[in-house]
Design a protein that fits this description.
12 strands; alpha+beta; CofE-like fold; 6 helices; 247 residues; 26% helix; three-stranded antiparallel beta sheet; 60s Ribosomal Protein L30, Chain: A; homodimer
């Protein structure tokens, strides 16, 4: 029987700098709310991870290409240049909006490049190079520090086609499934569910966003009470090109 | 300071029939977990709402058009016919998959028409005619029965472009905001956030899905601890056509 889920924000983390021990800061913040527990899933904002990984670019040093200038319109072409450098492919562009596929395969605004919440108006934060590796490293380090084996999700806010507003989704996943596959399971009245795949890691990331907010400076939350088995990755959530009806 | 969020599944509801008093069944199920409280948001699965509203179609009586036969391929053309009747526009079709815009403006698989969990293999469940009205009616009736003013979200599982798996989203909303608009608010280091709109109602629906499951027959969950102000609607979450880069 499914029980109750708790989503617990972790307050009090400092403004993050490159090479900060984010796992230690999280374990310390978690101790204020009773500590981490086995089977917890820890959701960490991508921006926090990117900052400690040094994925920060200063606009001052950026040289602008002709293509960036064309796409920029009235926007800062240096920002567009940084986006293009992060993109495998531009999916749609309507100045100053650029929807791009990142090298990871994520399709999102600005190839995940973000200015808000950064260290200043002339500083951009990029996605982690390998969000699954970021999640796995946090999981390992948290295990070392606390002795507790948690799942970790590195989350970011993505827009969606056809729907307004962003929801947080999982870019990196470790120690918890990304997709719950109900292929062939029976529903409550005994009929087979066909090919139902639930993006649980995205729903967990979205649930955490509800307590992390956007202006509160809360970079992490604990999701407790899930009973999910297995392990997935952020790439499990990327639609394979051959099944993609929208590219 | 943001507090903890709780997501509480409501167990023990019976298999639903047309004209059942769903609000009463929910209030009774909630009493087993301590009852509803002010500021709770109640998430109710669309299928539960559709069943009590009689939005059920039997395949036996469906006459098939030429277009449905063409789109169906190897699938049951009667099912495609029902989908076409619910659709304002077919956005993509690759037999047997039909992505359509519903009359509400939602873009989703099969125009929201669903077979699983229905009353039999030859029965389809359609989306409510007006999910916002369904949410508002549940809210009013729950207020009458319990004296508690809750928010209500009618949820459904939608696929997404570019990402694998479904997440639950809000089709109908009453007494709680759909979008949290951070236009012009300052982030934690004092920089203005530009045009950040968070689809909180979709994230709440997704959080509820994590406890409602797909095979458990749990048609509703309480989300407690949100501190959201304002009221929205499901149509707030539909991307206006003029801003839509993907149609």
């Amino acid at each position: 029987m499914t029980g109750e889920l708790r989503v617990i924000p972790l307050h009090g983390l400092p403004e993050l700098e490159e090479d900060d021990d984010l796992a230690r800061l999280i374990v310390e913040a978690a101790s204020a709310v009773g500590g981490l527990a086995e089977e917890d899933v820890l959701v960490v904002a991508q921006k926090a991870v990117s900052k400690v990984e040094g994925r920060v670019v200063h606009l001052a040093g950026v040289e602008v290409s002709e293509r960036a200038r064309e796409l920029a319109g009235d926007a800062d072409p240096r920002r567009i240049e940084v986006i293009l450098a992060e993109a495998r492919e531009v999916v749609r562009a309507r100045s100053p909006l650029v929807i791009a596929e990142t090298r990871h395969g994520f399709v999102c605004a600005s190839a995940g490049v973000d200015a808000s919440n950064a260290k200043g108006p002339d500083t951009l934060v990029l996605l982690p190079v390998d969000p699954d590796a970021s999640a796995a490293a946090l999981r390992t380090r948290i295990g070392e520090l606390s002795g507790v084996d948690v799942g970790v999700i590195v989350s970011d806010s993505f827009g969606r086609a056809w729907r307004l507003g962003t929801t947080d989704v999982a870019l990196g996943v470790a120690g918890t499934p990304a997709i719950l596959d109900l292929d062939g399971q029976l529903d409550s009245v005994g009929y087979e569910l066909h090919a139902t795949q639930i993006a649980v890691a995205d729903e967990i990331a979205g649930a955490a966003q509800l307590v992390m907010g956007k202006t509160d400076g809360i970079p992490a939350a604990i999701v407790r009470g899930l009973r999910l088995e297995g392990e997935g990755s952020g790439s499990d959530l990327v639609m394979p090109l051959e099944r993609d009806l929208f590219r």
